[in-house]
Design goal:
With 62 residues, the protein is mainly α. The chain is 60% helix and 0% strand. It has one domain (2-19, 26-55). The chain has 2 helices and no strands. The longest helix has 23 residues, at 33-55.
Length: 62
């Protein structure tokens, strides 16, 4: 579960920033590949890992 939390945290960290201090100035950095594609993908992968970790039965006998 810690790996999933790390993926989610990394995704949110990569998504942060890119804003402008002046509200009258537009910063196109908001639409970078890292914020639009990479960060949400990492967050979804992290949620997938979390679901797998929750549903995994460690006491299953083979």
């Amino acid at each position: 579960m810690l790996i999933g939390v790390a993926f989610i945290a990394l995704g949110f960290i990569l998504m942060s920033g890119g804003g402008s201090d002046d509200p009258n100035v537009f910063n196109p950095e908001i639409y970078s590949w890292r914020r639009i594609r990479l960060a949400p993908a990492l967050i979804l992968i992290g949620f997938g890992i979390e679901v797998y970790a929750i549903l995994l039965n460690p006491h299953k006998k083979k």
